Amino acid sequence: MSVLAPEPSVSSFSASQHGSVSPWRLSVAPMMDWTDHHCRYFHRLLSSKALLYTEMVTTGALIHGDVARHLRFNAEEHPVALQLGGSEQADLAHCARLGEQWAYDEINLNCGCPSERVQRGAFGACLMNEPQLVADCVKAMVDVVSIPVTVKHRIGIDKGESYEFVRDFVGTVSEAGCNTFVVHARNAWLKGLSPKENREVPPLRYELVHRLKAEFPDLCIAVNGGITSSVQVAEQLGQLDGVMIGREAYHNPWWLAEWDETFYGAVPGELSRESVEAQMVDYMAREAAAHGTPWSSIARHMLGLRHGLPGARRWRQVWSDHKLKALHPRDVMVLAHESAQKSA
Questions:
Q1: How do strand 80-85 and strand 57-58 relate by DSSP bridges?
Q2: In this structure, which topology does domain 273-343 adopt according to CATH?
Q3: Stretch 190-210: mean pLDDT
Q4: Using an 8 Å Cβ cutoff, are 112 and 85 in contact?
Q5: Can you tell me the mean pLDDT for 165-194?
Q6: Three-state secondary structure of 40-103
């Protein structure tokens, strides 16, 4: 039986270890209804290095809908990846080309979403049952774009626990030109669980993701699922090329402010919660002037900014109060701080 080397602690990630850093070293997961371009702008204020993903955009939405509405983003968001949902080669090729034209840095194919709506569209996690189809879809995109085409997937479907299932999936798809796989270390149960339950009930099996990296050392393998601390990130980076963070990044966004220094060796900056909030207020004003966007549509993404601080609850309540929507966001910020100080 082989013995694994001790896994590194956070403190072991010195600046000298970041000389050759994978673009996928740390990323924020695509999350439906959450990681829109306002959310990504906010996250970029906290980390200049992490890779940011869009919400999943279906090929149908791009082909038949408002392309600008789905693909518009702020230049400050780079590096930013477009996640597509679909299973028709021609449609995916067309949408990948659109993504490159709109200056995205990566195209990612969703092979991990377990929702019934996605299954009815014959894409998402159910595609893992058809690795050759996924390979054909990947090749169709690789052939028409010059940016990376990547795949996000699960370790298995339903209650099957075979490592060979995910190994063969990765092997087949990699032959089509995909060199990067983001692996959610849980199975996707296609029946009987909600998407939320699918993020919590199927057991985490990081060891299968580690086996993939050992078997495919030339591929970039990143892990997703259940990772909520820098210690856990460091442990995974001891064996893998990257870590993707989901809900914890959204609910506790100030964590992102540690990432550049801890995992990229960046020089510590003078970032503060107050300065980030002020920059978001300026952004809200610009978006309102340019696009008529109500500040509440943007503020919802930063409600976790003061997570764990005294007065955070009252601060959130003010920023969530739609009765204040007629006010300038700068005035709302003043009220939020006053309220937080009174309740602290």
A1: parallel
A2: Four Helix Bundle (Hemerythrin (Met), subunit A) (1.20.120)
A3: 87
A4: no
A5: 94
A6: HHHHHHHCCCCEEECCCEEHHHHHHCCHHHHHCCCHHHCCEEEEEECCCHHHHHHHHHHHHHCC
111, 113, 126, 220: the active-site residue:
113
Active site residue 113: yes
Give me the residue label for tokens 């086996």. 211
Tokens of 240: 């893998």
Number of helices (H), then strands (E), belonging to the chain: the values are 16, 9
Instruction: Name the β-bridge partners of 152.
Output: 110, 182
Dump pLDDT digits (tens) for 6-17. 345 555 444 334
All CATH 1.20.120 domain ranges of the chain, comma separated, are 273-343
pTM above 0.85? yes
Architecture per CATH, 10-264: Alpha-Beta Barrel (3.20)
Tokens of 241: 């090329």
The candidate with the shortest Cα–Cα distance to 305, out of 339, 341, 278, is 278
**In b/e form, how buried is each residue of 114-127, taking b as 16+ CB within 10 angstroms?**
bbeebbebebbbbb
- Nearest CA to 185 out of 243, 230, 238 is that of 243
Query: Which regions of the chain carry the CATH code 3.20.20.70?
Result: 10-264
Local structure of residue 134 (DSSP, 8 states): H
**Model confidence pLDDT, tens digit, residues 13-57:** 443 344 478 999 999 999 999 999 999 999 999 999 999 999 999
- Dist. CA 304–CA 335, nearest whole Å: 17
